[in-house]
Amino acid sequence: MARTIQEVLDLIIAAVPGAPQAGSVDVLKSGDPAWEVTGIVTTFTASMDVLRQAVELGANLVITHEPTYYDHYDSDWLAGDPVVQAKRAFIEEHKLAIFRFHDYWHMHEPDGIITGMVRVLGWEAYKQEDEWMVVVIPGMTVGKLAASLKEKLALPIARVMGEPEQPCERIGLIVGAMPGDFQIKAFERWHLDAIICGETAEWQTCEYVRDANALGFNKALLIAGHAKSEEEGMHYLVEWLQPKVPELSITYIAVGDPVSLL
Amino acid sequence: MARTIQEVLDLIIAAVPGAPQAGSVDVLKSGDPAWEVTGIVTTFTASMDVLRQAVELGANLVITHEPTYYDHYDSDWLAGDPVVQAKRAFIEEHKLAIFRFHDYWHMHEPDGIITGMVRVLGWEAYKQEDEWMVVVIPGMTVGKLAASLKEKLALPIARVMGEPEQPCERIGLIVGAMPGDFQIKAFERWHLDAIICGETAEWQTCEYVRDANALGFNKALLIAGHAKSEEEGMHYLVEWLQPKVPELSITYIAVGDPVSLL
Q1: B65 a known binding residue?
Q2: Binding site for a divalent metal cation: which residues of A?
Q3: Do A262 and B147 make contact, defined as CB atoms within 8 angstroms?
Q4: Which residue of A has its CA nearest to B178?
Q5: C-alpha distances in Å from residue A91, one per residue of A29, A52, A80, A100
Q6: Nearest CB to B70; choose among A158, A204, A255
Q7: Which regions span the lipid bilayer (chains A, B) (predicted)?
Q8: Confidence band of A1 (pLDDT split at 50, 70, 90)
Q9: pLDDT average, residue stretch A123-133
Q10: Segment holding A196, helix H or strand E
Q11: Which residue, A188, A181, A179, A144, is CA-closest to A165?
C-alpha cells in the first residue's frame, strides 16, 4: 500500500490531542506532501550525517525533533550562509522530505520525548501520576544518578552540581533547552532535589544551585546535553509509529552529543 | 582618605566612554551609596561563598559581573524563593553593597573582560586592531587550542567540536552566554575558524558547526564555560581600579566553574 508524505503526517498529527496548532514549528520543512514515502528515518536532528544515511537507506521522509537550519522557525536568517546553501542543495538534490516533530511529540499524552528517556533509564516504576516531568526514586543520590546517566545514556562523563553522597529522590526531567528561569522555578514548583536537564543557563540555573547548596538547601543539577536528553524520545517514536504504517521501513538514527572531550 | 560607595562608582563610571546609560543593569543592587567603603571585592558572580569571603575580609563593596538573583535585571521574579530570601537576608545583615559591572566593563575601551582573558592566555601579540573579539594565531590547531585553554584557564577537560589536527588560526572570543544566532553569524562576519565561547546553544551553534564540518568547512567550537570565559576580566579589574583608589584594599575572588565532572 503506497502512502504519500501527507498521509503519514496526517496519521501522526491525528494521534496527538490538540494538534495541529496554528504557529507550530511542526511542519514540512522540505519536499512535496504528494510524494510517495519510500522509507522513514527518525532522529533528534536532521544533520548532514543523518541526511546522508537516509539517502543510503533509500528513505525520503526524515522526522526530526530539532530544526534543520539552526533556528526555531527555520526562517531565512542564514539564507546567504554557505553551510545552509550546501545543506539545502543536498536536500533538494536527493528529494528529501523533512518533517519537524517537536511540539506535537511533547504534546502527546504521555510526552513522547520524556517517555523515551524514562524507558531507556528504566524508570517506569518511578513515574508520578500527576507530575509527568517528575520521577521519585527512593535512596537515590547524586553519585548514583550520575552513574546511571553515564551508563544508560552512554555519556563519557557526567556534568554535575551537588556532592556525590547528596540525596536526590525527587528528580525533574527538564529535557531539551528550557530557559534558566523555568529550570529555577521547577525546583520549587515540583519540590525537586535534582534536575536532569539537556542544556542549562549557567549564569542562572547553576548560580542558583550553587547558592542553594551553600545555604544548606539540597539541590542538584545533572547536565546531560541537549541531544542526549531528548534523542531516546525519537528512538521510541519508531515503536509508536510502526503500527500506524506497518508496510513502511522506519529507522532511528542516533546523532549523539556534538561535543567531544579533549 | 575616606570614600563613599557612590564616589567609587562615580570614578568607575567616569572612566567608561558612553556610561552611564539609561536601562543598564550596572546599578547598585544592595546597600547605601552614602556608606564609607571599607574594602572592595571583585568577582564574576556575587555567590554566597564570595559574599562570605567579603565579610571575612571586612570589604563592604562587592563588584560583580553577573546578577545577584539569577536574572538579568535582578527583578523580583523569585521574591518568594527561600534561596533568594536567605541570600538577601545575609546581604542586609552584613551591610554589603553590591554593584554590577557588566555592560560598562564590556563597553570600556578595550573591553575589560576580553582584555583579562587575552592577558591570562598570553595572546596580546595576536590581537587584531579593528576586530577586538578576534585573535589570529599562526599555526594554531584545535588540539593545541584545547591544550592552551586547559592549561591557562585551569580546565579539567576541554569541551570541543572539531578534530585535534584541524587548523584554526582565526579565533573569535565570544565570551559569556551570547545567543546561538550571534555565535553562528560570528563565523561568517569575522571569517573565523574557531570560536571560544562561554556558554553555547547546542541545538543551534553546535548543530551548525557539526554540519559545517560534515560539509568540509573548517569550523571549530571550544566551550570554556561562562565563568571561566569571563572571570579573568574581573581579576584584571583589580589592576585597573587600584590606581583610582590607592588607599583601598581590592581583592579578586575566583568562583570557578560551578559544574563538576563525575
Answers
A1: yes
A2: 65, 226, 230
A3: yes
A4: A201
A5: 10, 9, 16, 15
A6: A204
A7: none
A8: confident
A9: 94
A10: strand A194-197
A11: A144
Residue listed under C-alpha cell 560583580: B64
Judged by a CB distance cut-off of 8 A, whether residue A215 touches chain B is yes
Cβ-nearest to A203 among B52, B142, B177: B177
Pick the CATH number of A5-107+230-252 from 3.40.1390.30, 3.40.50.300, 2.30.130.30, 3.40.50.150: 3.40.1390.30
Q: Looking up cell 516533530, which residue turns up?
A: A101
| CB proximity A211 to B under 8 Å | yes
For residues B204 and A66, what is the distance between their CA atoms, to the nearest angstrom?
Answer: 9
- Equal fold, B5-107+230-252 vs B112-223: yes
Where are chain A's structural domains?
5-107+230-252, 112-223
Contacts of A65 in chain B (CB under 8 A): none
Q: Give the mean model confidence (pLDDT) for residues B82-105.
A: 98
Q: How far is CA B68 from the centre of its chain?
A: 14
- ipTM of predicted assembly, 2 dp: 0.98
For B182-248, the DSSP string reads HHHHHHHHTT-SEEEESS--IIIIIHHHHHHHHTT---EEEE--HHHHHHHHHHHHHHHHGGGSTTS
Beta strand B260-261 with B250-253 is: unpaired
Say which amino acid occupies B103.
D
**Count of residues for chain B?**
262
Describe the crossing of helices A207-214 and A180-189 by its angle, rounded to 10 degrees. 40
Residue numbers in A near B150 (CB within 8 A): 262
Residue B224 and residue A2: Cα distance in Å, rounded? 51
CB contact (8 A) between residue B209 and residue A48: no
Strands A134-136 and A170-174, bridge-based pairing: antiparallel
Q: b/e string for B99-111 if b means 16 or more Cβ within 10 A? A: bbbbbbbbbbeeb
* Type of residue numbered A224: A
| pLDDT tens-place string over residues A149-193 | 999 999 999 999 999 999 999 999 999 999 999 999 999 999 999
Architecture of domain A112-223: 3-Layer(aba) Sandwich (3.40)
Query: How many CB pairs below 8 Å do chains A and B form together?
Result: 170
Q: What is the pLDDT of residues B241-254, one digit of tens each?
A: 999 999 999 999 99
Q: In what order do the strands lie in the sheet with B220-223?
A: A260-261, B159-161, B220-223, B194-197, B170-174, B134-136
